[in-house]
Design brief:
The structure is a homodimer. The first copy, chain A, starts with a strand and ends in a 5-residue tail after the last strand. Chain A contains 2 helices and 3 strands. Chain A has a 3-stranded antiparallel β-sheet. By secondary structure, chain A is an alpha+beta fold. At the A-B interface, helix 1, strand 2 and helix 2 of A face helix 1, strand 2 and helix 2 of B. Strand 2 of chain A pairs antiparallel with strand 2 of chain B, so a sheet runs across the interface.
């Protein structure tokens, strides 16, 4: 099973990387850009686990390893059994 | 309009961050983890652009600023008009 986990700063936390990208885009003339937030994405391939296992394991992994729950939030979804291109 | 862009290494490119996370998870006892790939996610809010504008602007931004097209690939989707929580 392939799972995608998105980790990003909570809305209340400053995002300097996103700000830098926003400034770069405005400088390049993309004046329609209003806000940019940058985060991390993890794609994890699990062997032989059920959907139920995933619902238990993935939030645990996200909170313990992938995200800092003080300043970051995460969202996740199952991508399916097949390997993504 | 709010757009999400996922940037990750091409499959043929080594992903040391993903490998480190994979090793950490295996060390913690998550033996069902087979592979981990890490990438970046950008959420960009645009002001007053159409879907057609987005289809022109977003790939341009991704190739010029967000991703290094030599070693990275990107995928994107429109999240909608409303701000995500």
């Amino acid at each position: 099973m392939r799972v995608r986990i998105l980790v990003s700063f909570k809305e209340s936390v400053l995002d300097p990387q996103g700000q830098t990208v926003k400034n770069a885009l405005l400088t390049l003339g993309y004046s329609s850009v209003k806000d940019v937030r940058q985060g991390k994405v993890f794609e994890i391939e699990f062997d032989g686990i059920s959907d139920e296992d995933a619902r238990r394991i993935v939030p645990e992994i996200a909170n313990k390893v992938l995200a800092n729950p003080i300043i970051e939030k995460f969202a996740w979804e199952i991508l399916g059994e097949a390997k993504q291109v």
